[in-house]
Specification:
Number of domains of chain A: 2
CATH superfamily of the largest domain in chain A: MoaB/Mog-like domain
Structural class of chain A: alpha/beta
Number of strands of chain A: 12
Shape of chain A: elongated
Oligomer: homodimer
Radius of gyration of chain A: 22 Å
CATH topology of the largest domain in chain A: Molybdenum Cofactor Biosythetic Enzyme, Chain A
CATH class of the largest domain in chain A: Alpha Beta
CATH architecture of the largest domain in chain A: 3-Layer(aba) Sandwich
């Protein structure tokens, strides 16, 4: 176990993706998958994600619902200098605090842009909900923000990822979420009954079944996830045996 | 205007992505972007998306919140034959109806698998919320489902896309959402103030600013979206002039 005390509920996270461009299909989100994988390594399970447009009332409502539900909330998007970048103001509204100039963020942007280029639009990026702390942005300097259990990250994946690496030491993780995968050219419908019985025997594990098609052949990836390495290995082996009993070969990972 | 009456609120959509594998980062969702683009062409704006795990209570709550909020709801994922495929049962619960064998779906699966291979697990795919109609699945036969304003689609993108093409004639669209893009090697912070004024002059349009980096140069895509082609072209030209006034070149699309 890394962090967290035995018997405590394991920590959870929610991801709030902010931006019209994700909902319109203009931009393919890549931050949820990244955060999901990184958080799993810290033993933090993502329990919900939402995508909302650049509308203050929508952001405020989603922030308040998600911060009540999950241990941590990560927002992505809407922290640039343009009129549609309203995440900090909206999170401030959600917390009922003003959005004010953060002296340290101001100094960072002044160092980066110089006094001539730090215009009013760029200065908006130094405004944070009152009481917030900063998250370092080694890529493009304008910092991320933390207030309460909410982290405000950039939308651009390289910047969001750098910010997450800057902040992850602050998170209290749980036992790491481990996974093992059995891949076989077995149709889901053939193995479903046996797989359901493996899940019933191991209620503490999550067993998922993900069909795929490769070079015209139908196969299934059978994924076991959980925190107990011994039980995980046992369930994995039970699934492998199901595949063998169907006269098929399989590949194990994890 | 295609469909919809003048003065009526334009139709909206919500997307509910169901599956632990999306939240854990194992699988990169591709359905939201596809649905966002397809729906925009029909004049239907996606106003929210959620990703929830394979947990009945979570699915029921999200379905009920989203079907009250949007004209249409599209769920993806959780309609296969395995124990973690619980979308149809959960949507039935959300509507307060039983989930029962649908005679037409039964016939489709019987034709496809034959009586020997249509085991209990596969037969689950022919169960729908009572009163539902079917959405044709030309790829792998097991149909999608429509009940009320909720469409239940597959998670595998090729199948979800084929199902959407099967059902889209049923949707009442609005005026198509048009877009125009001005791409320029101008940093966001330089053009932000002027861009904000363009947005103020055209409150009926959505103007978004999306920075990018290409071969070490920083640029911005300035995207105008709306339903009035003349106003869209005017705002696009105003943005192009902002770029010219900064002494930069630009590329127009749309």
């Amino acid at each position: 176990m890394t962090g967290g005390k035995r018997g405590e509920a394991p920590p959870t996270a929610a991801v709030l993706i902010i931006g019209n461009e994700i909902l319109s299909g203009r931009t393919q989100d890549a931050n949820l998958a990244y955060l999901g994988r990184e958080l799993a390594q810290l033993g933090i399970r993502v329990v919900e994600a939402r995508v909302v447009p650049d509308i203050e009332a929508e952001i405020v409502m989603a922030v308040n619902e998600l911060r009540a539900k999950a241990t941590y909330v990560f927002t992505t998007g809407g922290i640039g200098p343009t009129h549609d970048d309203i995440t900090s103001e909206s999170v401030a509204k959600a917390f009922g605090v003003p959005c004010t100039l953060h002296p340290e963020a101001h100094r960072i942007l002044l160092d980066h842009y110089g006094p001539e280029k730090l215009n009013a639009a760029r200065l908006r990026m130094a405004h944070t909900p009152e009481g917030a702390s900063l998250v370092a942005n080694p890529v493009s300097k304008a910092p991320g923000v933390r207030i309460g259990n909410v982290y405000i990250l950039a939308g651009i994946p390289t910047i969001a990822q750098a910010m997450f690496q800057s902040l992850k030491h602050e998170l209290s993780g749980g036992p790491p979420l481990l996974s093992a995968t059995v891949t076989a050219y077995v149709p889901e419908g053939t193995i479903a009954a046996g797989l359901g019985r493996v899940q019933e025997r191991h209620p503490a594990l999550d067993i998922g079944s993900y069909p795929f098609q490769q070079q015209g052949r139908f196969g299934t990836q059978l994924v076991v996830r959980g925190t107990d390495a011994a039980e995980l290995a046992q369930a994995r082996d039970e699934i492998a045996r199901l595949v063998q009993d169907l006269g098929q070969e399989f590949v194990l990972e994890g």
